[in-house]
Amino acid sequence: MMTLSKLADGSDWASGQQLRLAFENSILSLTANIFCAFVIVVLFWPLSESQGLIAWLGSVCVLTLGWLILQQKFNKETEISSAALPRWRYAFLVCAFFSGATWGMFSIFMFPDGSFLHQTYLTFVLAAVCAGAVTAYAPLPGAFPTFAIPVLMPYAYSIWATGTPEASLLAALVTAFMFILLRTASVSRRNVEDVLSLQVLNADLTRALHHRATHDSLLDLVNHGEFNRRLERLAMEERREGSEYCLIFLDLDLFKDVNDKGGHAAGDKILQGVATILKNRIRTSDTAARVGGDEFALLLEHCPHKRALEIAEAIRKDIAELKIEHDKSEFSVQASLGVTYGESGVQSSAAILSAADAACYAAKQNGRNQVRVNKASDQFETTDRFDLTKGTHT
Hints:
394 residues; alpha+beta; Alpha-Beta Plaits; 2 domains; two-stranded antiparallel sheet; 63% helix; 10% strand; elongated; disordered N terminus
């Protein structure tokens, strides 16, 4: 079944949960239907034709079996898309209608005209069937009326048609009872919707708080602490085919000049432009992080190092072409990039970090605005800029 984390639209998730609750609760309702059907057959056996009773009971059993098959298919769905929800809802409502109509047919074709006692029996049984169905069908909008109206209205009409004062009173009571149940089901449905809405709001709040804790507020990139956690996870994964990954460190050149001449507002615009470039150049499965004031890191999962070099070079060119205007002045920067590569379960995160840091430092020392590459190795010394023990950078 759908999980809240997989659905961006909380209303779709809530609708799916309502449908799930209706299917789960219908088991008890179906059991009660079968039991009540057998009770009716036993009570009416001396009064009605046996063939009609058997045919009606068979219809109830067939519908119950069909309903159970539908429920099993629904339960086997590990994930239901938003597009599939209306089809499942429609199928549920169709089953509810035919189940209710089957009970209504009993009132039409086998109504005990000459026995007020059996009319009373039928009243209590139908009331029990509908009362028990409130819990089962209430979570799904429209489900309970779709079931209850075909059950009770034919009976109310049949008993009213007998023309006796007692029957007219009983028909009025049945009609009033139906409206009370409809009202009860409506209130129950709203209660379910309120609870589900609170769950959606809580989940949205949790996601927002988690995002705030793991992302840079200015650039909406992963922060240093979250980057470290993702790198550790990737480095510690079990080695398997295609487990090569790459790390790119990026240090902006001449960024201090931007801040000195244009102030922090100009610097922020440059940083935001760089962040946009990084987001546009990587996949959704990759990680773009701000790990320092003007320092960034890209973690590319399942990425051959040749492809990482192409990405790094494209980012370098994009940043070199980046121009921003602030206070009637134009500002630009360049970038030095260090690329390293390794395999999950082989190189440690420290080896990956030190190799990328060393490559980035070499690019800066050898003229800036270039890309350098190192294979992951413990032989490289690293600065404390990308220390795994650090949570954030300022």
